[in-house]
């Protein structure tokens, strides 16, 4: 017989400003679950919603609600447990743990249901930090955090998910399969194979739209993969940068980390040509967008703003998921992988010096073959030498 006749029992916060908890009436273990709510009416509504959906085990609990009290003195079970075990966490260390949680973990996973946090999604999150397609708010430098820092954040994430497992929100902690980064180097970025590119961009228009969701995302990812451009350079593109007559693109600027428009990474302007299929996608997007010529090709949420790095990352991950690429997250496929894919593909057909020029390798600026040419002239030169080859290799 259940301990309580009611389907659940609401428990008041043990500290001022804390969360309400609940116990299920039919739970013989009397496990206490956090509602993530600080007032009684919201907490009761949360519980009623769980019951209405028939999900009494709490699979709708998102990480932000579950972790609301973590590493906060007087409200955190972990801190209380460490203290009772004779290994108390100092207030300063607890504050540091909370800062990592707030800046590295919750912005990415906060609204994700605990039951939907997988080993693969944790690997993608870590790869995104390493690739800087996801930048924690407190990260001040232009470089990704050190391996030791990322490993520390993973350990903190493990603490939170261990407690989620203890409270039976999840059956097992997905982070246990994650290996720590070595101090020597980050995992090398992987590239897409030719067969995988064909899967991502099928000939059938209906199937293509199913994979990417919008014409804009089709054009966005195809530009990245067939131009060798950096993400900041693609985000800075305007319609005036497209040379429709020569199937070319002028690469003259880039969006910086502070969202300002600056020079490219190499500090130089360059040009290249796109395969006819990419131009086709761009024309389709231009007709759909119906934007002025001086507008960004790929826009942010607000008018007249460039797309965010998150938009690029989300679009890419959607495509991979739709066609079943890297579902276990073991390959390091990130936005910058598209630039590496381009370099690897074009090395088969393009002179290395020409390739360095069109992709703008910053380490090769002084030896770039076309460094004295305008982007318009480079487009014409590359078109004359490689147009047929480029069209064929990306068809």
Overview of this structure, please?
- With 395 residues, the protein is mainly alpha-helical.
- It folds into two domains: 90-187, DNA polymerase, domain 1 (Orthogonal Bundle); 194-393, Intergrase catalytic core (hpI Integrase, Chain A, Orthogonal Bundle).
- The protein has helices at 40-52, 63-66, 77-84, 91-109, 119-131, 147-166, 194-200, 205-212, 215-227, 231-235, 276-289, 309-323, 335-346, 352-359, 375-393; strands spanning 8-11, 21-24, 33-34, 242-243, 248-251, 254-255, 261-262, 270-273.
- The strands form three sheets. Strands 1-2-3 form a three-stranded antiparallel beta sheet, with helices on one face. Strands 4-5-8 form a three-stranded antiparallel beta sheet. Strands 6-7 form a two-stranded antiparallel ribbon.
- Helix 9 (215-227) packs antiparallel against helix 11 (276-289) and helix 9 (215-227) packs across helix 13.
- The longest helix is centred in the middle third of the chain and has 20 residues, at 147-166.
- The N and C termini lie far apart (67 Å).
């Amino acid at each position: 017989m259940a301990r309580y006749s009611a389907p659940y029992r609401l428990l008041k916060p043990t500290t001022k400003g804390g969360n309400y908890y609940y116990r299920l009436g039919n739970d013989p273990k009397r496990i206490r679950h956090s509602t993530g709510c600080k007032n009684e009416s919201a907490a009761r509504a949360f519980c009623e919603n769980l019951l209405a959906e028939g999900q009494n085990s709490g699979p709708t609990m998102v990480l932000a609600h579950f972790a609301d009290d973590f590493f906060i003195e007087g409200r955190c079970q972990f801190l209380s447990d460490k203290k009772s075990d004779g290994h108390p966490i100092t207030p300063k260390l607890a504050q540091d743990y909370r800062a990592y949680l707030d800046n590295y973990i919750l912005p990415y996973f906060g609204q994700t249901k605990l039951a939907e946090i997988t080993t693969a999604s944790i690997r993608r999150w870590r790869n995104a930090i390493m690739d800087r397609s996801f930048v924690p708010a407190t990260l001040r430098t232009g470089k990704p955090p050190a391996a030791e820092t990322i490993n520390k954040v993973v350990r903190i994430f493990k603490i939170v998910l261990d407690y989620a497992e203890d409270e039976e929100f999840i059956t097992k902690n997905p982070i246990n399969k994650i290996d720590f980064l070595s101090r020597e180097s980050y995992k090398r970025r992987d590239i897409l194979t030719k067969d995988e590119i064909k899967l991502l961009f099928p000939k059938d228009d209906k199937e293509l739209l199913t994979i990417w969701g919008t014409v804009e995302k089709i054009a966005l990812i195809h530009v990245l993969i067939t131009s060798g451009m950096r993400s900041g350079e693609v985000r800075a593109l305007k319609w005036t940068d497209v040379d429709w007559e020569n199937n070319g693109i002028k690469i003259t600027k880039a969006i910086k980390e502070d969202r300002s428009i600056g020079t490219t990474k190499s500090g130089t302007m360059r040009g290249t040509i796109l395969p006819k299929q990419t131009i086709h996608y761009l024309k389709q997007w231009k007709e759909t967008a119906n934007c002025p010529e001086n507008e960004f090709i790929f826009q942010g949420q607000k008018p007249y703003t460039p797309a965010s790095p998150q938009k690029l990352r989300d679009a890419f991950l959607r495509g991979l998921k739709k066609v079943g690429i890297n579902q276990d997250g073991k390959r390091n496929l990130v936005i910058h992988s598209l630039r590496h894919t381009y370099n690897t593909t074009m090395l088969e057909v393009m002179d290395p010096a020409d390739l360095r020029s069109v992709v703008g390798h910053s380490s090769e600026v002084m030896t770039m073959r076309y460094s004295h040419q305008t982007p318009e002239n480079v487009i014409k030169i590359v078109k004359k030498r490689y147009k047929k080859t480029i069209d064929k290799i990306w068809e």
